[in-house]
Design a protein that fits this description.
It contains 6 helices and 7 strands. The protein is α/β, with parallel strands linked by helices. It has a 7-stranded mixed β-sheet, with helices on both faces.
Length: 211
């Protein structure tokens, strides 16, 4: 049984920011969760942290219009980015929060990894692919998390996983693909393993430098 290096249950809310200027200092390591507004991002964050309401889940996709920051450990943060896609909000609101999303992704130096959440029944839509290509070009590690995996039976689930893994080779970067279900916690261990490796990189680099 894998034991996570970091205690995700200790994650606590720090702040909600309308743009990058209102975020905590740009130091340490941040890992961001991004996805279409109906991809199950809030549910995944709540499952990861074993907290029912850390990230707000809503019956109305697109409610998250701020960059929500959570403290995992000293100088280590989780970021819940605004959902993108077909949220039923006014165009001006949508444009404003997609601008803040773009600014964060392009300018935030402490961002080291991006978790892109996609409904396993509708993976790799255009906006997903644009986000992945951008992240790879920025030398970010990417985890594609195929959510709502419980909605498919084992055969189709494995088929979709293999198809997305094959398609991800085209991105030519550090891209990992796993299935995930908030309902039955499938894929939670794999998610923790990936996050642990990202959050540990500075320590590993320091150890190599000292040796």
């Amino acid at each position: 049984m894998y034991k996570a290096k970091f205690n995700y249950q200790q994650t606590s809310f720090l702040t909600s920011a309308p743009d990058i200027n209102a975020l905590p200092p740009d130091t340490g390591i941040e890992v961001a969760f991004a996805g279409r507004s109906n991809a199950g991002k809030s549910s995944a964050l709540n499952t990861l942290t074993r907290q029912n309401s850390l990230a707000r889940t809503s019956k109305t996709p697109g409610r998250t219009q701020l960059i929500n920051t959570f403290r995992l450990a000293d100088e280590k943060r989780l970021i819940d980015l605004p959902g993108y896609g077909f949220a039923k909000v006014p165009l001006a609101v949508k444009e404003k929060w997609q601008k803040s999303l773009g600014e964060y992704l392009m300018k935030r130096q402490s961002l080291k990894g991006l978790v892109v959440l996609m409904d396993i029944r509708h993976p790799l839509k255009d906006l997903d692919q644009q986000l992945i290509y951008w992240a790879v070009q920025s030398n970010l590690s990417v985890l594609l998390l195929l959510t709502k995996a419980d909605k498919l039976s084992p055969g189709p689930r494995k088929k979709t996983l293999l198809e997305v893994r094959e398609a991800s080779l085209a991105f030519m970067g550090d891209v990992t693909v796993h299935t995930f279900s908030s309902l039955n916690k499938q894929g939670l261990t794999e998610l923790e393993q990936v996050l642990d490796s990202w959050y540990s990189r500075d320590e590993e680099a320091d150890a190599q430098h000292e040796s």
